[in-house]
Each structure stands twice: as C-alpha cells, then as structure tokens.
Amino acid sequence: MTRTRLCGIAMLTFAGALILPLFCNAADSISYTVCKGDTLWSIASRYKTTVKDISQLNGFSSEAVLAVGKTIKIPVTSNTPDRSGDVSRESRAVVHINTADVCLRSGPGTNHSKIAVLPEGATGKMLAKQGSWTKIALGDGTCGYVYSPLIAAGPGNVEYDQNSPVQRCDGAQTTPTSDKVQSDLIDTALSCRGARYVRGGTSRGGFDCSGFTRYVFAKYGISLPHSSAAQAKLGTPVSRDNLQAGDLVFFETYRRGISHVGIYIGDSKFVHAESRGRGVNVDSLNSAYYASRYRGARRVR
C-alpha cells in the first residue's frame, strides 16, 4: 500500500484504486484568529497557501466573509513561513494590562507605530510571542503588540467591543470611529489587488466591479446590491471636491448610464475590479479613460 499526500488531504491508494480521502492530522495545520481587515486572500498570502486550501480545511465557502475574532485553521506546507512564536489554540490565554497607559503597537518594538493606549485592566487574547513582546487581540478585533512585562494572566475589568471608547496615542478620546472603519475598509479593498475579473463574481476567486464593492463593504456590515446602477442610488451624493476614502465612485463605460463602480482611496485614486484584463487594481480619476467617464460618487457608510 502506498500513501499519497496532498495539501490539506491525504489519499490512500491500493492497486491503483482510490480507497478513501482522509484529512491530515492536526499537526498539518495551525490556528489563526481573524483580525480587523483580514480577508481569506490576505491570510492565504501571509501563510503562503491558497484561499481554496483554507476554505476546504475549515469547511466554509471560498466566498466566506470572516468574522472578526473567529479562529480558523491554516494548512501547513513546505512553503509556510516560520510561525514558531504563534500560540496554539489550546494554550491561547486571556490576559490583561497590569499597569496604566500601555501602548498597543503595530509591531514587536518601540520603533513600530502606536495603535492605541490601553488602560489598566484592559482584557485581550494572547495570539503570539515575539522576543519580549506579545501580540494580543482586543474584543473588538483590534490586534497589536504589547511589551510582555506589562501584561498578566487572566481577564481584567475592561472588555473591548465595537462600542468601547479607544484612547488614541495622541491622548484624545474617541469612539470607534468612522475613521477607523474607513481605514480598515480601504485596507481590505487594497488587499484584494491582483484578484482576476470574473463577470458576476463576488469572491476572492474573481470579482466583477459591483461584486468587488459588495464583498468589501459586507466585511463592515454594509449590504450592497450586486449592480453598479443600483449602488449609485444608495447613500448620499458627494461632490468631486468632497470625496473621502471609502466613497463609491461611478462611471459610464460600455453602455449608457452607470455601468462601473469602484472605491475611492484618496489622492484622486480608486480601487476597482476592471474588465480590461487587469482585475482588481488601482487607477486615477484623472486618467484619460476614467476622467471623461466619471459620473459621480455616493457615501454609504
């Protein structure tokens, strides 16, 4: 009897006949907690695997919109980068900040940007360790690094959710924040660059223009119809001079009326799923092609 191994699946063959597909054991996967802005494509890219392999291993569709805080399994292959500092699901612990005004940073070191200032007692879930720093996830899905001596085991008395106040590192108090959602939305949109154009497509396997905008906004609880013309009737109109990142921008391309949509990202640029062979990419509103075809913008956030 011989054993043939595939990514995420093992198959037994006997005398050339297929006997039974078996899932690889737990050692062939690692656990990952979904953070804000993550997509199946961005996670697959980070771990050198594919959306198809992740979705098959977890038993969900490749079109799934991942819930922040959900734990999924990532298949391990010979190309998987070293994640020796990752904390397994079984040993992943609840921790809390043990002193006042601790900065949550984007990376493991003081040279990385500050995300927020956490109060004493703020509770999070430990995700990984890297040197003297620990990566944690707050209850609202915000992830970042804290200097390890400043955390302690067990829950504290401050739980973060979508409505919790966050103290920015400039000392100002704010509630989360259309600005934070706007930034995360743009990160999600840009993480899809390179996805191919597929007519009617609404997943990382392929998008059309309105399928792409629908996919991105669904990550943030905003349901859009699968039609650029229908999307152009939602929200409030925005003048060209008042465009903000995250606004939908509309064009008249291959037929009369609205026939194309993208997401404005600032600096006169927008990200969209283009049918002219380039898939999801970034273009300028000032380009010769799109400047003459621009037909307005809507704000739906």
Structure keywords:
single chain, 301 residues, alpha+beta, Membrane-bound Lytic Murein Transglycosylase D, Chain A, SH3 type barrels, endopeptidase fold (from Nostoc punctiforme), 3 domains, six-stranded antiparallel beta sheet, five-stranded antiparallel beta sheet, 6 helices, 22 strands, 16% helix, 34% strand, disordered N terminus
Descriptive account of the structure:
The chain is of the alpha+beta class and 301 residues long. It starts with a strand and ends with a strand. The strands form seven sheets. It has a six-stranded antiparallel β-sheet. Strands 11-10-9-6-12 form a five-stranded antiparallel β-sheet, with no helix packed on it. The protein has six helices and 22 strands. The protein has three domains: 74 residues, Membrane-bound Lytic Murein Transglycosylase D, Chain A, CATH 3.10.350; 83 residues, SH3 Domains (SH3 type barrels), CATH 2.30.30; 120 residues, endopeptidase domain like (from Nostoc punctiforme) (endopeptidase fold (from Nostoc punctiforme), Alpha-Beta Complex), CATH 3.90.1720. Strand 7 and strand 8 form a beta hairpin.
